[in-house]
Amino acid sequence: MNNPGDDASNFPRGPAGPGVTDAAGDPDDDFRLVARAQQGDLSAYDELVTRHRGRIFAMIRNMIHQEADAWDLSQEVFIKAWQALPRFEAKARFSTWLYRIAHNAVYDWTRKRKIESVGELNDEIFERERIDAASFTTPFGGDAPDDSMVQGELRAKIAAALGKISPEHREVVLLKDVQGLSYKEIAEVMSCELGTVMSRLYYARQKLQTLLKDEYQSR
Amino acid sequence: MNINPDEARLALWLEDELHGEELATFEAALAGRAELFAAREEVRRWRGMMAAALPPSVEPPYPDFFNSRIAKAIRELDAAPLPEPNAAGGFSWRAWFMPVAACAGMAITFWLGGLKSGRVPEIDVTGAPRAIPVEPILYTPENGVSAEWIASSKAAASVIVLSGVEAIPDATDFSETVYLKQQRAIDSTAGLNPEPFSNE
Description:
The structure holds 2 protein chains of 2 kinds.
Chain A lengths: L26 H12 L3 H23 L2 H18 L9 H24 L31 H14 L4 H12 L4 H8 L3 H18 L1 H5 L2
Helix pairs in contact in A: 1-2, 2-3, 2-4, 3-4, 4-7, 6-8, 7-8
Chain B lengths: L4 H10 L5 H10 L4 H20 L9 H17 L13 H26 L27 E7 L4 E7 L37
């Protein structure tokens, strides 16, 4: 795990949209805010929420493809993080720790949805592998008015392709290629070995590149 | 999954996760391996496309409301009363008294229920047929002895009069037929006159 002073900006990161906060800004600031929050300073925690809510919301929404549930789950992540904050040690970046909580929240949500869907009229509608991942209930909040149509189409195709791969593959791609986490951080978030992360990422990219063959080769 | 250390280092290099001296050493070892450098460029291109299409950070709708709801939930959590600490260090009379009291309550309930169900039901006998008084049949063990039964409803009594029975001799020892309680010395010392103390 990176030390607080490690420079995470060496890893490629996607451009933040307009009005988007960059959670990975300065880990040192995070640790200062965490220290205050651990003393019960709610305003410090509110600032941490503001700094990280964009990444957590984007990650969860890309995982579950449900805007409203992603909004609720993101809040749940920060509430659980507050409850666990006394146990947080500065061994990991605060953002990595949040991704770990988000990982658990998403998988709990998925299990719950699977249980609830048993016996319903049409279970197929809950098979997320069959859902068009681009079918968000509301438009992307980060869209800028001047976004090109081409970029929008590519985004929709990538989202749809992500919806066709397994949740584990989807998560590793999102953490690596979108959120810019290192292999080691991803292993910590997903609670698996480094080699497993490497393997999953390799196969996930292979599948996605096959699904996005036309778009990928034209670039 | 176990992987070769060199493969792991190569994977890290492809993802731009090697730095400093380790990066320089590894790239020096890769000199002349143009296909690997091309592969790294390919990975970079892929990451660039993904990152451009899917922003890593997207503000949630109504961000102020988002924060305020979290703050509200936290305040409610903090205001919730904590469970009473157990000062006895693990032992509490409530821990065993409550189950015992519950069992006793159930036992009393079953007992009362049993009493009620075991009670003889009250039956209306006003319409039942009444018994007809019949004169009893009297037997006498000795010849020459007769018996007469006299019933008096006014006196609420019945008398049997025997005739021809021989007189009971005075020498008859009734103690043989009747149990008489005799006080034994070891039964009790109460009521006995204590002997006066002697100064000798």
